[in-house]
Prior knowledge:
Chain A is an alpha+beta fold. Chain A has helices at residues 15-23, 47-51, 60-66, 77-94, 116-131, 143-153, 164-172, 184-190, 198-203, 206-224, 255-276, 308-322, 355-371, 385-389, and strands at 6-12, 32-35, 42-45, 71-74, 98-102, 105-110, 135-140, 158-160, 242-252, 278-289, 294-305, 329-337, 340-341. In chain A, the strands form 3 sheets. In chain A, strands 5-6-1-7-8 form a 5-stranded mixed beta sheet. In chain A, helix 4 runs antiparallel to helix 5 and helix 11 (255-276) packs across helix 12 (308-322). In chain B, the strands form 2 sheets. In chain B, strands 4, 5, 6, 7, 10, 11 and 12 form a 7-stranded mixed beta sheet that branches. By secondary structure, chain B is mainly beta.
Amino acid sequence: MRSFNAIGHLDADCFYVSAERVRDHFLCGKAVGVLGNQGACVIAKSYEMKHAGVKTGMPIWDALRLCPQGVYVKRDFRWYEVLSRRMLDVVRAFSPRVEYYSIDEFFFEVSAGVNLQEMAERMRDAVLREIGVPVTVGIARSKTLAKLVSDTAKPFGALALLDRAAELALLERLEVTEVSGIASRRAARLEPHGIRTCLDLASADRRLVRRLLTITGEALWYELNGEAVLPFYTERPPHKMLSRGGSLGGTVARPDRLYAWLARNVERLVEELEFHMVCTGALSVYIQHKDGSDGFARRMLPAHTDRFDLLMEAANSALAQAWSADRPAIRMHVAASQLRRSGFVQLGLFDAPPERAEAVAKLKREVNAEVGRFALRSGATLPLADVYRDEAQSYDICDVRGKICF
Amino acid sequence: MLAGMALALSELPVELMVRHGLERRVCDRGGEREVQFLFADADRLLPVWRNGRLQILRWGNRRGESAHLPCTAWTQLDTVQNGGWSDRAIESVVVPATMGLDKGVWYRIRQGIRGLVALDERGGPRVYVICEPSSHYYQVMTRGGSWMPALIDERI
């Protein structure tokens, strides 16, 4: 039985830029772009830069043409996480049930008997006052509606919208791709049936939507019609898969450098396995080549493990299959699946005694906890000295734990 | 290579602004205004913390100006460390900067840039910006800039 009155969605306005402005007043009022891991793409922009036509994900050289007066800053996920967790604390002061959806988005439940519009405004003002980050708060009858409300109330908005007539007016003017979970491919499936706006989707036959978009789309149909059916997570559910990787910072053609990236990603993956106290039974390697082609290979492990040496052996074998050696690579992901809680795994029949490897792993953990992440690492990573020298490379968005969404 | 820098207007005393006619260098891109110092300026200047005071000095040496000093605006950190300037009286200085400019990209600088002041034959101080090989990030951001300014307590 539903024990809450409504669901709220708090979304920081151009979060990375706002976070930079919290500690750097000089950036206020300027067109600001935050650059991604390699310094090539704009991963966040201020409204001033947005008005100049710069889009998220745009390469800096395109952004420069549109906005030559822009100021560019290097991203700092450690700082963004600090502010994100402080925002989470503020939201929790208003609601006991909060979902840490992403680094800059939170859902919260609102109990009956609260003035919803007033609460949205108070929460928005509290985040600005206590943390310095402008946010927008939307409150509605479901998560999907709350997100649509906050998206349309930006920037620095606060809106509680529960009246069905007002909901319908909102849905009528929004394209269906505004719904979180409906991108261009799904929209293309809806289009032949005349479903173009959110209202079209909400008014469509539920069985048709289910047929076109499966049970996921049906859930969105309920949500748009004010019935909260999406799960609400106050804690992150256990991972079914863990992965690490991303851009290789340019093209990589040398095998030793690609192997170094593999070692780096496997070490980061081992950190995650240890943190979540799980072992993996299967390891996959994905490679994207510069020419757009890609390769994928998976290795089943003889026994579940979180040991670096065993995972590296499997990853290396998978890499040999996934990578076309005559094509430079630009991206790599290493993924662990078939996860099991550590302590509930059976040792392989032919495994060497794990004591030595465990001692090395323990030493590595302790040294890195004391001296700094990656201070002690595999010698295979030596060709990436330039990457390790850059402090900002040691912490990424995926290292911010506990959020539901990437 | 650093093509220019900007300093927040609030960082420059009015007296210096007036004495060096810096008002015409003031730019407004929203928020706090800035004073720009560009390599391409006819009157090439840089602000410098020297002897505990903020001063405005000539930036480098142009052809035909001083026969005593190298004709450049930059010097490599390696050159300084390997004694390339040891035959001259030089001082290390800080060039306060709020932003740097390279290949059209304005990027934020937290504190400033390392510099070196040398005297020309008339005893006039000139400042050279110290550079070091670019980080991978800087190279990508500036599309191939192979030298970046040596920043104070910061690496981009």
